[in-house]
């Protein structure tokens, strides 16, 4: 749960507060990487899992519910930009609070604002835990280091949530990003799955490009049980890009699914997660 929590990135159902409108947009939206620049974001994510299984003794369905509320501040530091415009970025977490609701009703809270909890987080708090190389369109060129989780997870959940098109798109214009994901233990045995992420421009508003995101499996596994670890990757929602500052501004995403008979007749797996991220750069 801790490793999932550290890499989780976050939510809210309200629209983002984008601040003062920037100047008119350039012809092609691009990330503007500046060596030494720190891009800070507040992430809020809420996840609920309801699972119905058959009681071993009575063989009657029993439903349990668990969930996680996560709030964190993550910072991306631009360490270098090469002559091709590819940036090397380091990500660290400066604040984190998680509230885990267990199936038995117990609640576990961890908060970096508390000295004792901060000490338990010292292995990753305020230290680089992810290092990536990204180009000006937001393509993930390389995962150089990922101290928690897998590198393929970063392909599924891009650091800045979108890949930009070749030119400023008209409203309704779509483009795709294929990616693969390897499911490692304990959730899988190294299986690889192919996904497609579809981006659709919702137009330019006050200098912010609004992009709709839809994620889908190309070929869902036939066994419902094998779909369970893939559901958290199926994000849909909106991403906001500041075309003048050349940076990812915010996102509002959700992922949900209901899988019947995932552990036999009469069982059910229900997953729902909401995610919000907002720039907090000064």
**How many strands, which pairing sense, and closed or not: the largest β-sheet?**
12 strands, antiparallel
Q: Alpha-carbon distance between the termini?
A: 32 Å
Any low-confidence stretches, pLDDT <50, length ≥5?
A: 1-13
SS element count, helices: 4
* Strand proportion: over 45%
Radius of gyration based on Cα positions: 20 Å
Mean pLDDT: 90
H/E element string?
HEEEEHEEHEEEHEEE
Secondary-structure class: mainly beta
Label this structure with key terms.
282 residues; 12-stranded antiparallel β-sheet; mainly beta; globular; disordered N terminus
Please outline the helices and strands.
Layout (H helix, E strand, L loop, with lengths): L1 H6 L30 E17 L6 E21 L5 E15 L5 E5 L3 H6 L9 E5 L5 E7 L4 H6 L17 E10 L7 E15 L2 E10 L6 H4 L8 E7 L4 E14 L7 E12 L3
Antiparallel strand pairs: 1-2, 1-12, 2-3, 3-4, 3-5, 5-6, 7-8, 8-9, 9-10, 10-11, 11-12
Provide a compact summary of the structure.
The chain is 8% helix and 49% strand. It has 282 residues and is mostly beta strands.
Textual characterization of the structure:
- This protein is mainly beta.
- It is 8% helix and 49% strand.
- The protein contains four helices and twelve strands.
- Strands 1, 2, 3, 4, 5, 6, 7, 8, 9, 10, 11 and 12 form a twelve-stranded antiparallel sheet that branches.
- The longest helix has 6 residues, at 2-7.
- The two termini are 32 Å apart.
